[in-house]
């Protein structure tokens, strides 16, 4: 008996990890790293981060958020219909397969699944599948409360991930300006995977997995169902520094998420507020994306050539440049007492004293500071800087 229970549990876990969302997310993360490295080498002849960085960070940066969401959602008793989970996962998969990650914010899949199922209920009232029926879904009752709150919480998680993680992985590349110069823009494409556990009422799941963990409250049985939630993000920064733009963008997103969840709570007394909360979340998320994209396209390039020195477009991890505390957009005016204005002059000046490098740097605030660093023979590209040429 114990062996059969273990076998059923292993089957259930295997089916969970064979969910297409997992597999597509893994391949997509590998593809993101491959194309990022290719783009960086085309511009700078060297990549900034290893090609598997996106894959390694797919889950490692987001599992804490997934645990907190799972405990909170289950702890306060937010239940969802299994039909909504299926449709939500299918829509998330379709959106991710477009590789247009500006539309893979989870609020879009949450809202489309909710309104899509309502439309299916309206036009296909007799649809049923193995004991599950569209007529069992109450879009002006419990679902009008739980789905908007969950959508808001997922927006909060998205905003926090963007605020804390996004700027660390922005990828620089060179573009031609209208004046014929070469400036740097920063592209970020990221995927985060959150295995969130949802609380599903009913015994439909036990029909497929008899030993799947359940508990009973009153006359209702509940199952814990883990679902891979994908958060995608894509944005180009050129008129703002990535470490300024992305944290601000993330902060606005999680504030919107809190507002969506708060309006969703109001649906306890007025169900239509749940519908309004989802629409607010979708509209605000679209506005954030569009406004920032338009602003960045119209603005000037913050990392562009200057006659006063060499502009930093990227810093290799664990390089002397990183140890010095150099930042994107700063200008190196002199090296070892020699004025520099381009990449060749920069590295020629380093050779004057190859073991000890003294820099005169103009910060983003216009302040001039002096810095020095010992260079070793194994240091990649000496300072480890990607510069605007």
TrEMBL record:
SUPFAM superfamilies (UniProt xref): PDZ domain-like
Alphabetical keyword list: Membrane, Transmembrane, Transmembrane helix
Any single Pfam family the record assigns to this protein: PDZ_6
Transmembrane segments: 12-37, 58-76, 82-100, 107-123, 143-162, 191-209, 215-237, 249-269, 275-294
Domain PDZ: 296-365
UniProt xrefs under InterPro entries: PDZ (IPR001478), PDZ_6 (IPR041489), PDZ_sf (IPR036034)
Gene3D superfamilies given in the database record: 2.30.42.10
Name of the featured protein: PDZ domain-containing protein
Higher taxonomy: Bacteria, Bacillati, Bacillota, Bacilli, Bacillales
